[in-house]
Amino acid sequence: MDSTSQTSSKSQPIAAVLLSRAFDPEESKRILAEKIQQRPLFLCPSSPPPSDARAARRREREKKRLSRKKALKPKPLSANERRKLRLYEVPGSGQKYALFEPLHQLWLGYIREILGNEIYTGGEGAASKLTSADFHGAEVEVVRSGCVSRVGIRGIVIKDSRFTFEVVTKKNQRKVVPKEGTVFRIEVPLATATVTTTTEEGQGDDQPLPQQQQQTEAEQPKMIFEVHGEQFQFRSADRANKKFRSHFSKIL
Predict the structure, then answer these.
(1) Where is this region: Disordered (predicted)?
(2) What are 225-248's pLDDT values in tens digits?
């Protein structure tokens, strides 16, 4: 190789020299321009990885996962924030007995369905079902209490918390009655009576009694339950999934 070719090969990059040996001059220039000179080169760090590289990668993945989770799901309110916003408090304008009477009628249908045939017999079967029932909408009356002034309070339960029953009385007053040391009475009227009438075709038809013959609420047969509040010191959601065992109660 003469000196001229050596000088030209030294001035050219090594990639161009290698391509010129394998391709034509025009083809080698095209490959050099399109696939080599305009292609970015990514460099890796030459320093050795840290000793806790696996832990660092795990922390980075956890950080990304938490950031995605926070973006998709808002942070729930804390108990202190819920109290400040008064989310579970009934406003004064809503503390009216007439507003909760439809809820009480719904609760009567619900408790009749829960008790089933035990509503006529009572006993341990009715007690086990009553312990897991929800009392929002039930009309309760305080028959015994460690505080004498609470005896006689009667109203519809608007909030069944862990330690208290919050009721609205017929005088549109809100009363908070603690469950501890209190016995509540619950009256469940039985189903409305029906009378069988005979049509012209001679077929029997069950129809409700006329309004003047229907029994009033006071005259309807009722099943009366007495509930010891100390045995119900659970939230209604937790009480529904809890299994109660029958045992002797020390409360007389």
Answers:
(1) 41-75, 196-218
(2) 888 888 778 777 777 666 656 555
Residue 156, classified by CB atoms within 10 Å of its CB into exposed (0-12), middle (13-18) or buried (19+), is buried
Nearest of 120, 122, 114, 171 to residue 138 by alpha carbon: 114
Q: What are the strands, taking DSSP E only, across the chain? A: 139-145, 154-160, 164-168, 174-178, 182-189, 194-198, 204-208, 222-228
Tell me if 186 sits within 8 A of 227, measured CB to CB.
Answer: yes
Q: How many CA atoms lie within 13 A of 87 on its CB side?
A: 7
Distances in whole angstroms, Cα of residue 126 to Cα of each of 133, 160, 172: 11, 20, 31
Phi/psi at 138 (nearest 5 deg)?
Answer: -75, 145
What CATH number did the domain enclosing 200 receive?
2.30.30.210
Helix axes 97-115, 123-131, angle to 10 degrees: 130
pLDDT (mean) for 193-197: 40
* Structural domain contains residue 32: no
The number of domains in the chain is: 1
Is there a domain that residue 187 lies in? yes
Q: Is residue 155 part of a domain?
A: yes
- Whether 97 and 170 have beta carbons less than 8 Å apart is answered as yes
Nearest-CA neighbor of 97 among 177, 167, 183, 181? Answer: 167
- Does residue 64 belong to any structural domain of this protein? no
Tokens of 89: 């408090």
For 133, the domain range is 95-240
